[in-house]
Write a structure and sequence with these properties.
Shape: globular
Structural class: alpha+beta
Mean pLDDT: 79
Oligomer: single chain
Order of helices and strands: HEEEEEHEHEEEEEEHEEEEEEHEEEEH
Radius of gyration: 30 Å
Low-confidence stretches: 1-7, 28-55
Strand content: 25-35%
Distance between the termini: 102 Å
Helix content: 10-25%
Number of domains: 2
Number of strands: 22
Length: 385
């Protein structure tokens, strides 16, 4: 009897342990399920953050070209990146990648990761400036200021006003951009608590004596545009920044498909014939016309061209417009205009000349005139609707 009682007690104890174990497992599953639900809800409310160690999972980003003819500047920048506020933890990369925006007003240009407006970012900057006084203010994003400087005295005055009254400088030429110099500040060798040239952060100053302009921006001591501290694009963007030779333009009075084009003032008349617009160049020996044919197309027809373009650039004068250039047969250039990803136009370029072909020519004719990529882009960047 005693033996049976002991056996029964052992069985009851075993069953109790099994029941407790099952309860703990169910409880853990419930907690895990709630945690997953909370995480999903959190993702819906705010993007997760990226870990710098996950660089291998970042997609290759396309680089875009930006040019502002009014300011006489150009640079390359990545089409997308991750706002640096999301660089300290990790989760799904696709949920924090944002398109990079360029915002301009007057002589100020902003480069920022994510959608925003010029006024909202400028308000943030001015608020920080008021809070910290006239001292150095860390810009909320890249804030490029372009100013006129007619000579080196005005250049020196600009530097002393914006960087410190004891700051001197020297110029470093840029081999690939002969119209642009890097300005390097020379400090006064005093400690930060007494110096009158307190430059202990990343700064960029570009100067063009020919254009009589200076461009400057500060990026604090950390990366601003990139996929994380280990994959920063700031240096690449800055190294591509330079001043361009400014060309005086005139606008063709006639429109093609409700678009207006401008072209160099030194050229002759323009003429519109249906979907074609011809620009009489300033070549003296023959009548040489650069001809653009513009026609609307579908997104499906334009998609392949955009996917494999060799160069793309945003157009300032049309909201949400990008020009894609690619290789083509026959014409001298082929391009697609994408407006807000809703309307698409093919723009194909050719040349018409009255240069005669010699009767005894036994080779391919090489015309006396030449067109460069810049000639095409000068007109493309001028498009307005």
């Amino acid at each position: 009897m005693k033996k049976k009682l002991i056996l029964t007690s052992a069985t009851i104890l075993f069953l109790a342990l099994v029941i407790l174990l099952v309860f703990k497992i169910k409880q853990k599953e419930a907690i895990l399920q709630k945690s997953n639900t909370d995480q999903i809800n959190q993702v819906d409310q705010e993007p997760p953050i990226i870990n710098n160690l996950a660089l291998s999972s970042f997609p290759e980003t396309k680089w875009l070209s930006y040019e502002n003819h009014d300011l006489g500047i150009t640079f390359n920048y990545p089409g997308q990146s991750i706002p640096n506020m999301y660089w300290t933890s990790y989760d799904a990369v696709s949920q924090v990648i944002r398109p990079n925006s360029i915002l301009t007003k007057n002589n100020i240009l902003y480069l920022k990761s994510g959608e925003c407006s010029f006024d909202s970012v400028e308000t943030e900057y001015q608020k920080n400036k008021q809070e910290y006084g006239d001292g150095f203010v860390i810009d909320p994003v890249w804030r490029i200021t372009v100013a006129d400087v007619n000579n080196e005295q005005e250049l020196s005055d600009f530097i002393k006003k914006h960087y410190g009254k004891s700051c001197s400088y020297h110029k470093e030429p840029i081999a690939i951009f002969p119209n642009t110099f890097d300005i390097v500040l020379d400090g006064d060798d005093k400690s930060l608590d007494v110096t009158e040239c307190p430059v202990n952060y990343n700064y960029y100053i570009k100067y063009s004596p020919a254009n009589k302009k200076i461009a400057s921006w500060n990026t604090s001591q950390e990366c601003q545009i990139g996929y994380g501290f280990e994959k920063c694009f700031d240096k690449q963007i800055a190294e591509s920044f330079h001043f361009i030779k400014q060309t005086d333009l005139k606008t063709c009075p006639q429109e093609v498909a409700e678009f207006k084009f401008s072209y160099p003032k030194t050229w002759g008349d323009c003429k519109v014939d249906g979907q074609k617009i011809s620009f009489r160049t300033d070549f003296e020996k023959y009548n040489v016309d650069l001809v653009a044919e513009l026609r609307e197309t579908s997104k499906e027809m334009a998609q392949g061209f955009m996917d494999y373009s060799i160069k793309q650039e945003k157009i300032d004068s049309i909201d949400n417009a990008i020009i894609y250039r690619g290789a083509c047969g026959g014409g001298i250039a082929c391009s697609v205009l994408n407006i807000n990803n809703q309307k698409f136009y093919e723009i194909n370029w050719d040349v018409v000349s009255n240069q005669s072909v010699p009767e005894d020519l036994d080779e391919v004719l090489v015309p006396d005139y030449r067109f460069t990529d810049d000639d095409i882009w000068t007109i493309l960047r001028s498009i307005k609707n």
